[in-house]
TrEMBL record, chains A, B:
EC number(s) on file: 3.5.1.4
Source domain of life: Eukaryota
Record carries keyword Hydrolase: yes
Signal peptide location: none
Record's protein name: amidase
GO molecular function, one term: amidase activity
Reactions catalysed according to its record: a monocarboxylic acid amide + H2O = a monocarboxylate + NH4(+)
First-level EC class: hydrolase
Hydrolase listed as a keyword: yes
UniProt organism field: Calycina marina
Positions annotated to bind substrate: L176, S202, I223, G224, G225, S226
């Protein structure tokens, strides 16, 4: 069968997975579909309330018997069906399996009076890299369509153990190595706030799904911004934990086995409280007993408490940079960072300028790593069906390069290690000079607010954090405003790429686009960075339960 | 200059680094030189007592002002000088620098009444992979002679911060990839208990030095047994911590940058108490702030306490295997394991047979990894001086193989990860079947007691633990006895290699050779495994302060 026919069949199967009563009749819609669930009449008031709630609240209500998992799962399935029809964000949708699971959980609760785990009954949305038994994993590759899984990814097993319900797997860009979401199976996923903006990538389906509240906690992966960029573009919180904190075993991936820079799993959520529910629930399953790469490090409450004590005493010390010296962010992003800084300062905390240490070098180094097999693995997956390569990933993955050899790889490892250790030295030197511990660094995650399609050009703000294996939490800050965020006239570009990125800014086109920052800490500081992100969100007034 | 002349010059510089008054006149010595320090007249009674003491005791006495670092350092320098002359175990000896440092520490203590850190004044012996400012690092490569270091390895810096004194760097085999110690710079290092036995390798110089008590804590490295084998062959305790527990940054190495299986640092000691002093002292320096590969995991006292509670309630659960199914250990080793098991059983603990899971596969896989650059890096170092390759490392590193390519490496990574995770599954299944937590596995570390020269053939008992990245502590058990450990008649070999190893056994030649086991636990379980090793040593009566 021609690849077009395979893709077409898959697309129609996705469409058919949506029950008739959840289908949208007319697609004469506004660019912004964020209000559609409320006006559609497909969700009841209770279902709207459920999908507008928090995960923390929902699991508490299910654990008290006030809500059933069937009710909660039905609500999210309906809303996910809308999300799919409005943003084209799913590769798999399986409400029947989900409702069967929800019913089993409800029966368990009814008969025992007990929950099976801390996520009992909660629907969780998964990026289409997660293997779920009986469900396909195509990851947007035409050649992989028809891969029905015989076993679960480890994180899937542990989430089931914790009581989660799965109902959807969301779209990704071909190859995963792109921060927008487009593939030859279902095409492009768009941003629910404006169909002309990207939902981000590679966990872009998650971004659109959770952004639209078709999901409450979505699980993505990040090797160069793939959790954080969709979080930023959809006004969500998102964490890139350090490698080894959460299990990745038995996931599908491109460039599988590449270990110089590890892809990691992490949640996209509407609040840090929900993120914490996810993290603590997974860690409570002792993932290090299942996946050898997971460090035996349970949730460190004392680390969170240390930050809370600093918050209480106005004692946070936060470094910041607005530009990495390579590509200057657009005006909304610069204002976003400023907003966070002035908010922190007003709250009595200490901020200081952080000098990005050799970020250009780091950005080049990680690009070398991404291309270390010369794109062989990705092109094998693409070519085996005959589908064409999407144009976007030329920006990140340059397949024209030859494979590097073993000793070149080892030299690259040494460069990475030296860079990481030098960065730690920058922390130590700054701490000596400040006379206090640095708690985090606030900086852009992308140079743009939610970007227009095919305009994502610069990964450095995100990818340097991956190279360092630092913990990073994205915090939604505000929305671009054409009246405030005016274009810089006579901007002198730092480089050709910087000029291209800066030229893309258009106050009208970006009006209303989500603006975010990332809060970055040293390796394996999830508890601390999440607590700081939560406080920043609270100070900004974005620590909200409903954001529709 | 011809490589022979460079080596000769280096050798004579090492000889000249020993002050005349510490030189041995006659070298008509017994095979066993363990009593030489006592009979030589070079060390005073106090110096003999110091070198026969424990590190824990020495740092306590220096911290109370009862002993000076100069006295302690002088004693160990003298005894190290003897060790060098008797076993040929050092590549660098610098007593003058050591005594200058000791004096500075004494002056600091005198003027402030305070120690600089938990190792204040304690001499620590280093394998010649550690970089120490102003000192050469040759690692036994002729081509590297003359490399005077401009900066310290991170662990060296942190040990200095903790108060340590350095005085010697010990010998290694050419390439490091051998479990005996021989190179073209100084030749062969021998075992102080019998010059016909190997001191082990690659941290063999440490084994001989600490075994002879020319050092009290020696620091080695281990990528395939290199800490554990010399510990076993010299009746010492030795730990291979999991990767990421101790810093390795800025160490010299062969195959530098190879990250599929990491070499790790760890101490060789006479007791677990001294090992714990080392581990806690290094972790107290927060090594994760200096070396990006170190996990921010301080000493976990609660983990040690959990084991102590089990010991108190006779509640340990210990798996064991005597053979890995590939190479059957010699009779003394089998008896060694049996001795540990019966001792544990008598003490009321639970033992159960552990089935080695695919160790043959693992052994082949790690050999592929060692050879992944086809020996390119090692041969570059060897060939650049013109020195010949030592014959031994043909057993481990087969340089005739071509480099593997990037996608083959990634496939190897996946095999490693799958194997590690399957091994964890074996633990989980066994725990379900036993109905209790497994605390450790006791097994051989080598198939032989301290081996005769050039007869070390099988690395599998050690190297599978490296592939798994498990924590392993070697515990000295007893000595081979020609009257008990008789040769097995009519042994049917499992394989050609097994036949070669078994044929090597000779009760008379091995009479008196040290016999050890390793105590193995899951990744990053140092606190637990050390506590179990300590208890086994105590039960065996080997938890002693002087073992000469």
């Amino acid at each position: 069968m021609a690849w077009e026919d395979i893709a077409k069949d898959k697309k129609s199967r996705i469409a058919n997975s949506i029950p008739k009563e959840w289908r949208i009749e007319s697609l004469l819609l506004d660019d912004n579909v964020m209000g559609y669930a409320e006006s559609s009449g497909i969700l009841s008031d209770e279902e709207l309330a459920i999908t507008g709630s928090t995960a923390v609240d929902l699991v508490a209500r299910m654990a008290s018997g006030e809500l059933t998992s069937v009710a909660v799962t039905t609500a999210f399935c309906k809303r996910a069906a809308l999300a799919q029809q409005l943003t084209n964000c799913t590769l798999e949708f399986f409400p029947k399996l989900a409702l069967r699971r929800a019913q089993e959980l409800d029966e368990h609760f009814k008969s025992t009076g007990k929950v099976v785990g801390p996520l009992h009954g909660l629907p969780i949305s998964l990026k289409d890299q997660f293997r779920v038994k009986e469900i396909e994993t195509s990851m947007g590759y035409v050649a992989w369509i028809g891969n029905y899984e015989k076993e679960n990814s480890v994180l899937v097993d542990l989430l089931l153990q914790a009581g989660a319900v799965f109902y959807v797997k969301t779209s990704v860009p071909q190859s995963l190595m792109v921060c927008e979401t487009i593939n030859n199976v279902i095409g492009r996923t768009v941003n629910p706030r404006n169909k002309n903006w990207s939902c981000g990538g590679s966990s872009g389906g998650e971004g659109a799904m959770v952004g639209f509240r078709g999901g409450i906690i979505g699980v993505g992966t990040d090797i160069g911004g793939s959790i954080r960029v969709p979080s930023a573009f959809n006004f969500l919180y998102g964490i890139r934990p350090s490698h080894g904190r959460l299990p990745y075993a038995k996931m599908a991936n491109s460039m599988e086995g590449q270990e110089t820079v590890h892809s990691v799993c992490g949640p996209l959520t509407h609040s840090v409280a929900d993120m914490r529910l996810f993290m603590t629930s997974v860690l409570a399953q002792e993932p290090w007993k299942y996946d050898s790469k997971v460090i035996p490090l349970p949730w460190q409450q004392a680390e969170e408490d240390a930050i809370k004590a600093k918050i209480a005493s106005k004692g946070l010390t936060i470094g910041f940079y607005k530009s990495d010296g390579n590509v200057t962010p657009h005006p909304p992003i610069l204002r976003g960072v400023d907003t966070v800084l002035s908010t922190l300062k007003e709250a009595g905390h200490t901020i200081f300028p952080w000098t990005p240490y050799k970020h250009g070098h780091a950005h080049n180094l990680i690009n070398t790593i991404y291309a270390s097999d010369g794109g062989h693995d990705v092109f094998e997956a693409i070519n085996s069906s005959g589908e064409p390569a999407i144009p976007n990933f030329q920006d990140l993955l340059k397949p024209a390069l030859p494979k590097i050899d073993m000793n070149e790889l080892w030299a690259t490892h040494l460069k990475k290690w030296a860079y990481q250790s030098e960065y730690l030295e920058q922390f130590r030197l700054a701490e000596i000079s400040l006379g206090r511990e640095i708690d985090a660094i606030v900086c852009p995650i992308t140079p743009t607010a939610a970007v227009r399609h095919d305009r994502f050009k610069y990964y450095g703000y995100a990818s340097v954090v991956n190279l360092l294996d630092f913990t990073s939490v994205v915090v939604p800050v505000m929305f671009a405003d054409k009246n405030i965020d005016t274009k810089v006239e006579g901007y002198e570009a730092l480089s050709e790429l910087d000029g291209v990125v800066q030229a893309e800014y258009d106050p009208v086109a970006y009006d209303g686009a989500p603006v975010a920052v990332q809060v970055v800490g040293r390796r394996l500081t999830e508890e601390r960075i999440m607590a700081i992100a939560e406080e920043i969100g609270r100070l900004l007034g974005n620590d909200i339960t409903t954001q529709i």
